[in-house]
Specification:
Layout lengths: L3 H7 L6 H15 L11 H13 L8 E6 L7 H7 L3 E7 L2 H14 L4 E5 L2 H7 L4 E7 L4 H8 L3 E11 L3 H7 L1 H7 L1 E10 L5 E9 L13 H4 L4
Parallel strand pairs: 1-2, 1-4, 2-3, 4-5
Antiparallel strand pairs: 5-7, 6-7
Helix pairs in contact: 2-3, 7-9
């Protein structure tokens, strides 16, 4: 079985030994949790899905403040915090089980640049408007919903980093109204493939103007009645 270090080396990803040690501990914790927090039961699958998939499309250093919406098991926010020490990361999730897991992992990994908040994204984005340099999410919702619940917390000029699968083209078409309403534009798409055969894309959107105060709408509405 490959080690975390060997898998990252296969992809030419750069790292320092302390980062590998933290990822090792994180994967160990991840593989020990119940099935409702992760579907991965082996190291190779867990590293590909939760580490390689996050780092591979990133070409620049991330620094400043980052919000991970619907963080779940800590991906992508926790991984970004480990590999980009100049980032100050907030992991946001409304589920008690996820929040408890994340707090435990942060303590065990001794991560000083990460905090956890238990709240719905709609409430958090309204309360913490224009605060973050980056907002990221993976496997939380379709793009039009993400744009509404994430963009208000983003600074003008900041970037949305959304990890998507091959269906992102359809989601982009569907999200045009939301992007216009929330004042964001697509900056670039980075398509990439894992050696497992899976195809992925990182969508990078830039906020060019402050979002209207009416967004996000109240809890649940963006999911039930998305902007189309």
């Amino acid at each position: 079985m490959d080690s975390v270090k060997n898998i990252l080396l296969e992809y030419g990803l750069r790292f320092q030994e302390p980062q590998i040690e933290k990822v090792d501990k994180y994967i160990e914790e991840l593989l020990g949790v119940p099935y409702n927090l992760t579907a991965h039961r082996d190291l190779d699958s867990a590293v590909h899905k939760n580490v390689v998939e996050i780092l591979l499309p990133l070409k620049e250093e991330l620094k400043g403040t980052l919000l991970d919406v619907g963080s779940g098991n800590g991906v992508p926010g926790l991984i970004l915090a480990i590999f980009f020490s100049k980032l100050k990361v907030v992991l946001l999730d409304s589920r008690e089980k996820s929040v408890n897991f994340l707090r435990g992992v942060i303590e065990k990994l001794d991560l000083e640049n990460v905090s956890v908040v238990k709240e719905r994204a709609e409430n958090f984005s309204k309360e913490r408007r224009e605060e973050f340099d980056y907002v990221t999410a993976r496997a939380v919702a379709r793009l039009n919903v993400l744009v509404e619940i994430c963009t208000p917390a983003l600074k003008t000029g900041g970037k949305l980093l959304f990890y998507k699968g091959p269906s992102y083209i359809e989601e982009l078409k569907e999200a045009q109204r939301a992007m216009k309403e929330l004042k964001v534009e697509l900056e670039k798409v980075r398509e990439y493939s894992l050696k497992t055969g899976e195809r992925r894309a990182l969508l990078i959107l830039r906020k060019y103007e402050s979002s209207p105060e009416k967004y996000p709408r109240r809890v649940g509405v963006p999911f039930k009645r998305p902007l189309l």
